[in-house]
Design goal:
This protein has helices spanning 4-7, 23-42, 45-63, 127-138, 147-179; strands spanning 16-20, 68-71, 75-78, 82-85, 89-96, 104-110, 115-119, 123-124. By secondary structure, the protein is of the alpha+beta class. The strands form two sheets. A five-stranded antiparallel beta sheet has the order 4-3-2-1-8. Strands 5-6-7 form a three-stranded antiparallel beta sheet, with no helix packed on it. β3 (75-78) and β4 (82-85) form a beta hairpin. α2 (23-42) runs antiparallel to α3 (45-63). The protein starts with a helix and ends in a 5-residue tail after the last helix. The relative contact order is 0.12.
Length: 184
């Protein structure tokens, strides 16, 4: 039977490093070149404005290009949170936000019950390799959700569901009164 860490091939003798996603650089450069070419060929100032905006975005992106998340024998190091040692960490798990622009986080639950979050949206990573690296370097099974986390999430989902039912009931009741179906 294979060990779980062997399923995800990377060199455990070196720190596991997650680099920033490079696709946005390619997109910004491509559109910058397109709008610059269009501005030169047509003379339209709107293309120059778009080129300027894309150049600013490109410069801002290059400022953050060296940000990495590093997982090694010491702990987890990220620019957002600094270095957190394995002795300080109770466990780690993923979470995500729902909406127009969903976010993905690596949540680090500390032994003092505080929670540290690292946003993973701008990074290029494999979630299985990340969890294997955390479990390997910590020498414990730190990655995953605990029963307490699951209970807290179920409780908040249940409360949200009850609030939705109450609000929809109130709306239906108000509409019924307005249409004359219910007389008070």
């Amino acid at each position: 039977m294979k060990k779980k860490n062997q399923e995800y091939q990377f060199d455990f003798s070196k720190p596991y490093i997650i680099y920033r996603n490079k696709i946005w650089y390619i997109i910004y450069i491509s559109f910058f070149l397109f709008f610059t070419y269009q501005g030169l060929s047509t003379g339209n100032s709107a293309f120059w404005g778009m080129s300027s905006i894309l150049l600013i975005l490109l410069i801002m992106s290059f400022r953050h290009r060296n940000k990495v998340i590093q997982i090694n024998n010491v702990g987890i190091t990220a620019d957002d949170i600094g270095t957190i040692t394995w002795e300080q960490i109770h466990h780690c798990f993923y979470s995500s936000g729902i909406g127009k622009n969903p976010e993905y986080w690596l949540n680090i639950k500390m032994k003092d019950s505080s929670l540290r979050r690292v946003t993973l949206n701008d990074y290029s990573y494999n979630s299985k390799k990340l969890s294997a690296a955390i479990n390997f370097y910590s020498k414990r099974n730190l990655f995953g959700r605990t029963d307490q986390d699951n209970k807290a999430e179920m409780k908040s989902l249940l409360i949200g569901f009850i609030i939705m039912i109450l609000l929809s009931s109130i709306i239906i009741f108000c509409l019924a009164i307005r249409n004359g179906s219910i007389n008070l």
